[in-house]
Every structure is written in structure tokens, then in C-alpha cells.
């Protein structure tokens, strides 16, 4: 009953329609996962997420490990119960944040030591510890600890980093005792290797030899040019097994998501809809707008007249502009609802298009309007 | 059909149970009105207010006049539509904020000139203008422009200020063209006079001679000792007509509200539940707590086990503490929901107690537990 199934594959592209059956319910794919860094998708209550059609969210292990601590969350009945979210949760391994936020970090074979960005306290994260933390959280999809090399990095650095990442992957799998079919919980490996084809190939082959319940492509959308991301993504996806879910980490913009779907990616996460909402950027089918602009001062229309979200059903652009200018908390709430719904709806439309066999047409038409 | 009716008067105190029928629905009294300063009760969507049992909210004329401007709100269909709130709204006159927030203010017979605290722009508010603004907003209960003397002030200052306030009250009534029975909209006069009995008496007599649809007691809870507030309140309420609603502005703490109800006050507003929520202070039947305290770190219980609010139904103290410490927006949302519900429920319980003829017992028992 638990497990990943492919329901349909597109004829004109590598796009796939599938379903990930987890302990907390089914996730239709392709899927977008809003980010809930510290045990909350910022500004929203779970009912708002459900109303926006959210099926799975992402939690950040690094943040929850530091505050309030995974032992506390375990004690409170796990992350789902703690944050009142009964649908699936994917958690990252903490590695990405250790390397981007942690201070005085020191990588060793055993793991990585670092100081908390919050209070400077010293911590240590190992592949086994990352599994333990995510088990304490009760995540439905658990990611292995990896190192994500910055862009650009040279071959030697990336190669050595990858070797360590692959040894960590093997240890992570060793520390994993759940089976998908019994627990409905998944452990995903992460393909690294920078922008270097032979390293990406080595990474993929090694991870598949270890054998994970799903595969993520990491180390993209880290500052490289768009064409390079797409090139690396293209072959990286092709090498992955057909019958396992594929997750492109930290992506992204609507055009990047549609491109990745056409290459066969199933899962996405990004802070774009939530973070940009708080900065006043709202996504519409005709491209993003910034709600603070004077042109919206007396605009009685909704953010996007084709949007069915709570915000668009009840509020004018003029009101949203007022809330943003007046720095009201409700601005973040209503903007986030809209942006989350925009991404969720985009993926809903994608799934329908794949089912109907017209994904490529949908993608072309969406992008024509979005970039007009 | 529109109008204020007394339904029951308490035997052992002056507490009253009534109903205010407005163009946007009925308001049972005694009632607490959460404050929605800038076209939003901070952090909450209207559904959350309704779920908390809120029947009427207060809007701040000063803030809305400056930003986004009453003409814009009129153009958008009025404040109710602008902010998506279809229940009654009471608006203050803007006077209190002009005197507390406005810069370089200059009081003349005609009105008061001041500079915006937001951008320093020059503005002028007169009794007629305050009516015009509140008409543009479409408020259900409109307050007259007054001057609220700071505490302490001397007799001469308060007396002269009161004379002007009373002349302004007459002009405000002159500028008012609605009748309650036809429009369901009310204009309230405001009793000033500092802590001086003879001035309060003069104020009340003059306002009653002008004749308003309701009467507010202003100039209390401005820093005076509690016993003085209660003394002034006591005679101030006694002089007011039985058949009109009585509103104690800016009050207050649960004990002050219960005291005022026992003296015959019908309506209350205060930023206490909303502002304190954002600072982590949560009201419970056993007194307020601060959610950031370490003792709540692993507390699985709700804020108040007797509370039926959304927050208490779904979240632990440990989670709320985590959100507050992590400075999450959701902290303000969930804390505000709880505090608003606490005040609304207190007044619901008061109304039931008055109906059942046991208000005094209720008050005593509530206070015994609250202050324990």
C-alpha cells in the first residue's frame, strides 16, 4: 500500500504523473512543497495550507535541531503533532544550513561540527545523527546528510566533497531501519557533483548501488547560470531509476519547475512563494507583481483574477497594498496564502495536463503568458 | 428595528444586558470590541475574529485618515468591504491619536492642525471633518471629536478644554444627518472633564442637552490611579440616561471591565489582548502568563485548559513558546486569537450571568481565580 507509483508518462517529454503513498497520506506528483523552516510555514495556520491545496510541506532539520530541539519535538509527539499538520512532511538533513548558516564549521570524516547561528552554541552533525533527528521529528521523507559545494568550486574540491558525501550516504542508509512498505517513510539519497558530468554520474551510480527509496538532485540553483542548471539537470535526471521519486532541491521559479518537470522531476521545494510574499512580491499568471507599487493604490481587482485563493476571493490589490505599506502582519498572511496557492495550483494544472497528454502545450502557453 | 434596547438589569449591581441593533447586525451588550487600528485587527483574518465570537470591532479614524485615506476607502466601498468585515464597526474620532501621536499640533476653535507621525505631512481635523471621515468609512458607531486632557492637568486647563470639547460636540451633532432608526448608524458624544466631578457633571448635562445616540466616557485609563478611575467612573455612569448605550473608552483589564459593568457600562475597547499577544502575554482564567518563560518549554497543555479558542484546541504551550522565541509570525496570529477569545468569552459569560441574575457572584468568582 505504501510506495511510489507512476501513473502516467508524457509522450512529448519526460514528464511523469505519479503518487507517493506515505504514513500521513498520499502525495500526487509532480508536487510543490512549501517550506516550513521552524515548525511553521511562516504566517499560515494549517487550515490555510489545506485550503490552498498543500499536500506536503518541508521542514528544516538544522533549525528544528537547534530550536526547539528534536528531543523536545519527539517528546511532544513528533513534528506533525507539534505543529498541528497531519499531512506528509519532508525534512532536509540539516547539511545545507550547516554550510550556509553555521559558524566555524569543520568537516571531518565523522561529520561536521559547527556553531549555532542563533546563540553560538557548539554542535555536531553526522549522517547517523541526521537520521536520528529526522526520526525524532517523524518525517515522512528523510534526506541524507550531504555537503553541497558552493558554486563555483574546482574539480578537486567537488570530487573530494562528493567522495565524503557518498561515504556519508552509505552510513545514512546503514542507519536507516524503516522499510517504505511497512512504515510509509522514505529515505532519499542526494546526487551532488557540482556542474561536472562525470562526478554527477559517479554520484548517481554510487547512490543507486546503495539503493534509496528516492533520489534528490542537490547542488543546483546555487548561483550557476540557468542554462548550466538545465544542462546538469537534464543528464542527472536521465540516469535516475524510473520507478523511484525524483526531487529537485530548492527549485524554484515557475519556469525552472516546468522545465524540470519536462525532464522527469517529481518533487520541488522553494522559499520563493513564502519569502517573496513577505516582501510584497505576488505571483500571477501574467508574471510577478510588487504590491507596493503606486499603480495598485486604488485597484479594486484581486491580485490575479484567475486565482481561486482566499486572498483573491476576498481582498483587493488596494487593500493588500495598504497592508504592506502599513507593515501589517496580515500583509504577510494574505500574501503568503496567495503565493502558496499560485505554486500549488500551477502543479495541479501540470498534473491535469500530464493526465490529459497535453503537458507540453500547457507549459508553452503558461510561459508565453507568464513572461509576456 | 434599529436602536438600543435594554433587556435586563441586574438586581445587585447596575450591570445591564442589552442589544445594539446596527446596519451591520446586532451587538449584544455588555460587549468588548477588539481594536483594528489600520483596517485589520493585527494578524487575524475576519474568519478568525468570527470564530472567536467577535461581534464588533473598533477602527482608528486617525490612522485610516492618514493611510490609506478615507476617500480611498470610500471609493473602495467603505471600510467593511475594504477589510472584508461585515459585522459592525465603531470608529473613534481621531482626536485621541492626534493628541498622542500627531506632531506640532495646534488647537484652535475651528479644529486641530497637526503633522502626520508617518510622513510629517500637514493635516487639519475639525468636528465636521471627523464626521465626514467616519461617514466615508461607513462606521456603524461614530464618535465625536474631543480633546482628552493628559493626566494630571489642572482645573483651568481641563475646564477650558472641556468647553471646547462641548462646542465641538454641538458642531459634531449639527454635522450629523443620520437617524438611528433609519440608518442603523449611531453618533456617540464623549464625556470629558478630567478627574473633576463638577466638570464631568457639566459635560454630561451639556451632551445630554445636545442629545446623542449613545454616550462614551473618555479621559479615563490615562495614567490615573485605579481607585480614582473607579470613583470618576462611578458618578459619570450614574448621570447618563438609562436608555442609551454607554461606552468606556480604552478600558481595559479584565478587573476594570468587570467593575465598569457593575456600574452600568455597556461597551469596551482596548488594545490589551491584541498588543500583549504580540509580546507573548496570554490571558488565562488564572491570570496572565508570559509564554516565553522557560517553564513552558516542554508544556504539552494548552494555554488555558478551559479555553475553547482555535489556539487552545490545537496547540501546546511548548509550541507557542517555540514560535515566540523563534520570532515567527504565526506566534502573533495564534496568541492574538487566544487573547481575543479570552476577552470575548469573558463578556459572553458576563452576559449569561446578568441574564441569570448572578453577575455579582460571577464577578467575585472570576476575580478570585484570576488574581489567585
Report strand order across the widest sheet of chain A.
Answer: 4-5-6-10-11-12-13-14
In the CATH hierarchy, the architecture of the largest domain in chain A is Alpha-Beta Barrel
Q: What is the structural class of chain A?
A: alpha/beta
> Quick one: CATH superfamily of the largest domain in chain A?
Queuine tRNA-ribosyltransferase-like
Q: Strand percentage of chain A, roughly?
A: 15-25%
Looking at the chains present, what oligomeric state does this protein adopt?
homodimer
Distance N to C terminus of chain A:
44 Å
CATH class of the largest domain in chain A: Alpha Beta
Major beta sheet summary of chain A: 8 strands, parallel, barrel
Query: Percent helix among the residues of chain A?
Result: 40-55%
Short description:
Chain A has 372 residues and is of the alpha/beta class. Helices cover 43% and strands 18% of the residues of chain A. Chain A has 16 helices and 16 strands.
How would you describe the overall organization of this protein?
Two copies of one chain form a homodimer. Chain A is of the alpha/beta class. Chain A folds into two domains: 3-270, TIM Barrel (Alpha-Beta Barrel); 271-372, no CATH class. Chain A is 43% helix and 18% strand. Chain A has 16 helices and 16 strands. In chain A, the strands form four sheets. The first copy, chain A, has an eight-stranded parallel β-barrel with strand order 4-5-6-10-11-12-13-14, surrounded by five helices. In chain A, strands 1-2-3 form a three-stranded antiparallel sheet. A three-stranded antiparallel sheet of chain A has the order 7-8-9. The termini of chain A are far apart. The interface between A and B is large, with 36 and 36 residues.
